């Protein structure tokens, strides 16, 4: 059975979606990731573009609410918040079991400038999330491999 991870942020439109995609790319043999937000919005189109540049199509992903996940009775081994430090007080607490982690990343919805400038900032966040996920998968995959 795979280790289940829930990534949580405010809108489920950028950071949590990216983290979910990278876990499912890098370590899907051990982990199964989902994502949700406290105020689900629409996927950020610049995030969709940046992820496509990296070969990941998230354009058809739906944004999900933490409330719906709780109501569905889903449980997770890890609940990882990815809110930035400025929004940390709004970052939701997910009830239930599971180890809680916090990985703070800037919020792409707050980026300013022309499209090219926003895209560059989103690329930086994407790359930071990808690196964090890759390192974390490598460090924790021993848990998965030991269970097999």
- Tell me the overall shape: globular
Instruction: Walk across the major sheet and give the strand order.
Output: 2-1-3-4
Count of individual beta strands: 4
Query: How helix-rich are the residues, as a percent range?
Result: 40-55%
- Low-confidence parts, pLDDT < 50 over ≥5 residues? none
In short:
The protein has four helices and four strands, in the order E-H-E-H-H-E-E-H. It is of the alpha/beta class and 148 residues long. It is globular and about 45 Å long.
Task: Tell me what you see in this structure.
The protein is α/β, with parallel strands linked by helices. It is 41% helix and 15% strand. The protein is built from four helices and four strands. Strands 2-1-3-4 form a four-stranded parallel sheet. Strand 1, helix 1 (15-26) and strand 2 (31-37) form a beta-alpha-beta unit. Helix 1 crosses helix 4 (115-147) and helix 2 (45-53) packs across helix 4. The chain is globular, with a radius of gyration of 15 Å. The mean pLDDT is 89.
Task: Name some characteristics of this structure.
148 residues, alpha/beta, four-stranded parallel sheet, 4 helices, 41% helix, 15% strand, globular
